[in-house]
Structure formats: C-alpha cells, structure tokens
Amino acid sequence: MSDVRVGLDIGGTKIHGIAIGPDGVVLAEERVATTRGPEGVVTSAAAVVAALRASLDGDVIRSIGAGIPGIVDTRAGTVKHAVNLGLDGAAFPLAELLGARAGAVVTLENDTNAATLGAHAVEDVDDLVYLSLGTGLAAGLYLGGALRRGFHGAAGEVGHLPVDPEGAVCGCGQRGCLELVASGAALASAWPTTTGHPAAALFAAATEGDPAAIAVRDRFATGVAAAIRALALAVDPERVVIGGGVAAIGEPLREAIAVALTEQAETSPFLASLELASRLRVVSSAPVAAIGAALITPQRTPRTPIRMKD
Fold it and tell me: What GO molecular functions are on record for this protein (predicted)?
C-alpha cells in the first residue's frame, strides 16, 4: 500500500484524471464527459476520482490537484469566469465541495499553469515557457524552478497582446490581439472543416501542396512565432514547450513554427543569436495538464511580513 497523487484536467468537454505513485509512475487513467454547471462539474470530477480509486490496488489517494480554466484563487480553492464550464458567477468553492465528495484534500490551479508544471516534469528543466495552443492562446511560466503566476494571476496572457490596431475586436475588449491569429479558434475560423480536427485538416492540405492551406498555415505559424519571440525576449527561457489541442499535429507544427522564427530572425543578428527555433519542443502525447495537476501541492501559509521597528 502506498500514497497516490491524483491529477484532474477539467475541461469543457471532458475531465481527464490520472493517478501517480510515489515513484512517478502513472498507475491509472480515467476520462469522463464534463457536465456543465456547479453541481455537474463537482459530480463529474468526483466520478473520475471514484473510478481511479477503484482501479488502485489498495493504494491511498493522498492528494487531488485539479487544473481548471478561469480565474483561480489557489489559496481559497475557488474558481470564477470558467464560462465553458457554466461557472460564470461568483467565486465557486470547487476545492471544498470536491474534497468533501472525494474524501481527500483538493488543490486548484489554473489549467495552463497546471500544464506548465506537467511540462516541467516531462522536460526536466527548471526554466521554461509552456505555450498552450487551444481555443485561446496563453502561456505558463516556470522560471528559476518556480511557477510564476503574476501579481494578478495574469502572467503569460500573451494572447491578449495587441499586434494589429486595425484588427478585429477581441473578446477581451482590445483590438487586434494575437489570439485572433494564433489560436485553435483562429485556425478553425480560417480553415473550417466538417470532419475531423481543423488543425489536422489544415496541415494535411498544406503538406499536399494546397496553396490556400499553405498560406493559412504560415500565417498561423507566424503568429505563434510572434508570441514565442515576445515571451523569449521577456524572460529568455531555456525551453519553449508547445501544448494544447493544436499540439496534436506534432512535428509538422514544430517545423512550421521553427521556419517562421528563423525567417523573423533573418534581418536581425540579435534575434538570430538567440536561436529560438532550437529551443522548441511539442508535447503531443504526454498528458501534461493532468500530470501537472497531480503535482500541485497545497499553498503554504504566507510568511509574516518583515518591517522595521518604529
């Protein structure tokens, strides 16, 4: 009998759960369709935990970490503005409610940050940027051996960097944000398909030589490269890991982004010296979001501030 960590990747369509043993081995996996709304999310997540517990051979679940989209208060264990999950009201106490249902301590984290922790564990480097190419565009920062959330929890929101003052209005209220060019939603809009994944269809068509597909692919890759360049110039990470739904494309995606980065550096010896293309990795198979969630630990009590004596 041993202690097991459970990680939950809570998404709008499914919840992916894994159980990891003390030696780092994934002992079990489970996927359950997500039911929207406060009760639905709690019930769906608890069902994943119950299925994982049933598959373990007497092992005890020591902790549960959950990565979830939205604005997460890691200390309070609450989430708000998780629109795709039907949690768009006041801060929802998911950690408390799920913990009571699952019979273990639950710690919440933003889903991109959880995936960043997972990418760190898989890549085994202490200085990386995780760029999530999902419905939106967001980055997680793991710098100097620690996750960087930012003062307001907005570190890595590179998708809302305005790059085109004449562009369309973004959902955030700004105009011409990078997310409108370099995200899964932007790609699906530019290359709609009725069968399969838009990114897979686009890259397949581009590989076959379709000029329109090549143009859409290259525009998308150029946008992603711009995000990587901005992040690299801001924090200069050892590695840039690409994840999210579009990352299922694998090596062709990495190659397209690498070509765009190389082209952007052709007129700049400074950019060329940074060798950004060589830092790229694509995570297409490892469940980094669930792995990272399993590695989340409860927040420590804040230390007492130090001040000078009056």
Answer: kinase activity
